[in-house]
Amino acid sequence: xxxxxxxxxxxxxxxxxxxxxxxxxxxxxxxxxxxxxxxxxxxxxxxxxxxxxxxxxxxxxxxxxxxxxxxxxxxxxxxxxxxxxxxxxxxxxxxxxxxxxxxxxxxxxxxxxxxxxxxxxxxxxxxxxxxxxxxxxxxxxxxxxxxxxxxxxxxxxxxxxxxxxxxxxxxxxxxxxxxxxxxxxxxxxxxxxxxxxxxxxxxxxxxxxxxxxxxxxxxxxxxxxxxxxxxxxxxxxxxxxxxxxxxxxxxxxxxxxxxxxxxxxxxxxxxxxxxx
Length: 276
What we know:
Deoxyribonuclease I, Chain A, 5 helices
């Protein structure tokens, strides 16, 4: 059985485990007022520090815009997987959901994408209002034990529990993701990370994804981990409530395929620069 250690930002890695990070870096045009740093380049430096401090084996990244963004963000010793055949944009890439993996540990056996919309092969959302959203996943071979498993990163349209947004698209994305994941998770372990834009107390996408009355659902690693930590350089350590989280790490519930054992769960609340 494959054993995993999960984390919102970092997990404690023991022998035979995988340390996983989910990280929405906030796109370069989402912070034109520079609330998160003096510049995009300053933020990238801090984001490199965040990844280096935790040294995860796998990272699900959300919100790069250009291939150049991915190249800047990519830590030494990692390779990136993202959709680089997006002909509908002038720059030819769509890395809104990207995977970073340690190149000395994993071999990519397959890489796939689907669009969160009525046609998973076409870059249109469930409505014509917003930009397309994507999910990417890879079949990875872990060279430490030659096991195979799926790892995916995604970024949903905001759900109804996010102020100012409707429920329909986020819920539809959840149903689509489950539908595509179920047959794959019947063969190999599957871990999804990402900005799902849905909170744990909501009745929309999160409830659909984690519905235990369904024969197939996803399990939230937070609620299976024996420990939870806030990692911070601030004293006192900032308050944190997972009820407000919209970024999650899920695993498939098929115990006939894999036994998942989250060992540790942490959220990184470091602050950088004058704006903190």
